[in-house]
């Protein structure tokens, strides 16, 4: 038996998850999502014909399959943790939907963790055009997908599946597009073979398209700073397997993760529609001296072993004393690293003495992140929360530029780090204010 046939026979997970934006009903007419359901059934028929899935095994999933009384959060989380391919139906309504953004985010986390473990490419998102969307309206996660829609036909590109399915004149174009979409789903599922993940709670996960109401647009900036030694300046006796030639190559979750943490963090931040810039704490010492207004929100990843370097410890203490709430700290600390476990009490005390402000600053999950994140999965869960705190604090503390003419508008004007002007809503949060130090 061929290898791919054997893999199919042993794997009965759904081939695809169809992610779509619900269309509101209007005028008491027919169900507006009936056409999406027809597309789903057509795709399932092709997938069953192209594979040897047994009778009763699901070819795909759409949320209409959630039965009344079934926990929707648990069901969606379970399917997205196990399906092989994610198929988002692009439309203007899709990218305005917080739920669609949550579904995209949940699946993308699986792909990121798969790449971290295997260090292999794992792009298992196959987009489909329901209604054509101008490139300027695509959020960062959709814009970055390398996908040629013209492979499914020119009429498909100009009218989308909705236009083809509604007009009898284009019936042949619809059949062609759906057939090729099904072929692409099966091909990606069989070649990428993304591993199953841990289900996420949909009541807690963020949207891959940004905060509700933020709309599409250029990804927001976010700095990721690494405070860690290199393999050339390790404390005496420290295992060099976790380090590289520069701090950005620090890999605290080795061997479970095959990739340096900075680049996994970059992907996680990017999946939240931010553009990450990776740097080390040593690269720009001039910018670390003296109280200055922020130029971007920042995530500081600290290796406790770095605190045995007295010079770095002194500079971290000075940085902490400046009280920069737009910088949130995460301390990766692998529970499977026996050497780190043995030194945990000593190095935890050093960190508490060196950076007391960061250790008690922010909300509860920020303080948890500062006390030690034990695994890659836990890191993926906490990072979106500390990213959002850093972004909110940045908006509160960044330099405000009043609008021209002296009139005060309803929105403040912030000058972005690249010199572009942005209109940002007031992010004042009394709960966060109370926890600032």
UniProtKB/TrEMBL annotation:
<dbReference type="InterPro" id="IPR000157">
    <property type="entry name" value="TIR_dom"/>
</dbReference>
<dbReference type="Pfam" id="PF13676">
    <property type="entry name" value="TIR_2"/>
</dbReference>
<feature type="domain" description="TIR">
    <location>
        <begin position="12"/>
        <end position="178"/>
    </location>
</feature>
<dbReference type="InterPro" id="IPR035897">
    <property type="entry name" value="Toll_tir_struct_dom_sf"/>
</dbReference>
<dbReference type="InterPro" id="IPR047603">
    <property type="entry name" value="FxsC_N"/>
</dbReference>
<dbReference type="InterPro" id="IPR026367">
    <property type="entry name" value="FxsC_C"/>
</dbReference>
<protein>
    <submittedName>
        <fullName>FxsC protein</fullName>
    </submittedName>
</protein>
């Amino acid at each position: 038996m061929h290898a791919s046939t054997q893999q199919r026979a042993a794997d009965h997970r759904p081939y695809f998850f169809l992610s779509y934006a619900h269309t509101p009903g209007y005028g008491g007419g027919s169900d507006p999502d009936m056409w999406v359901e027809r597309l789903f059934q057509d795709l399932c028929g092709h997938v069953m014909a192209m594979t040897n899935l047994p009778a009763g095994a699901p070819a795909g999933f759409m949320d209409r399959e959630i039965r009344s009384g079934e926990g929707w959060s648990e069901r969606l989380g379970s399917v997205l943790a196990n399906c092989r391919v994610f198929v988002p139906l692009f439309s203007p309504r899709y990218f305005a939907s917080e739920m669609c953004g949550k579904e995209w985010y949940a699946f993308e986390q699986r792909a990121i963790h798969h790449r971290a473990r295997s260090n292999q490419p794992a792009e298992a998102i196959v987009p489909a055009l329901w209604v054509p969307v101008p490139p300027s309206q695509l959020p960062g996660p959709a814009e970055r997908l390398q996908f040629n829609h013209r492979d499914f036909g020119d009429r498909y590109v100009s009218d989308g599946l909705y236009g083809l399915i509604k007009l009898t004149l284009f019936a042949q174009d619809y059949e062609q597009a759906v057939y090729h979409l099904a072929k692409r789903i099966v091909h990606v599922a069989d070649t990428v073979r993304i591993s199953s993940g841990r289900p996420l709670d949909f009541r807690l996960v963020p949207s891959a398209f940004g905060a509700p109401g933020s709309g599409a647009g250029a990804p927001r900036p976010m700095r990721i700073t690494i405070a860690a030694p290199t393999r050339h300046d390790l404390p005496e006796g420290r295992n060099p397997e976790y380090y590289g030639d520069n701090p950005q190559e620090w890999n605290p979750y080795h061997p479970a993760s095959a990739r340096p943490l900075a680049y996994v963090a970059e992907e996680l931040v990017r999946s939240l529609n931010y553009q990450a810039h990776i740097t080390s704490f040593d690269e720009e010492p001039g910018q670390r001296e003296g109280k200055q207004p922020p130029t971007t929100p920042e995530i500081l990843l600290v290796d406790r072993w770095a605190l045995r370097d007295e010079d770095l410890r002194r500079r971290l203490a000075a940085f902490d004393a400046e009280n920069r709430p737009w910088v949130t700290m995460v301390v990766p600390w692998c529970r499977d690293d026996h050497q780190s476990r043995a030194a945990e009490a000593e190095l935890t005390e050093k960190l508490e003495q060196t950076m007391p402000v960061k250790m008690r600053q922010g909300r509860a999950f920020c303080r948890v992140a500062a006390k030690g994140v034990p695994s890659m999965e836990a890191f993926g869960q906490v990072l979106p929360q500390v990213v959002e705190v850093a972004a909110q604090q940045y908006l509160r503390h960044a330099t405000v530029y009043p609008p021209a003419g002296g009139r005060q508008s309803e929105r403040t004007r912030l000058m972005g780090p690249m010199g572009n002007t942005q209109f940002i809503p007031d992010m004042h949060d009394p709960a966060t204010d109370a926890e600032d130090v």
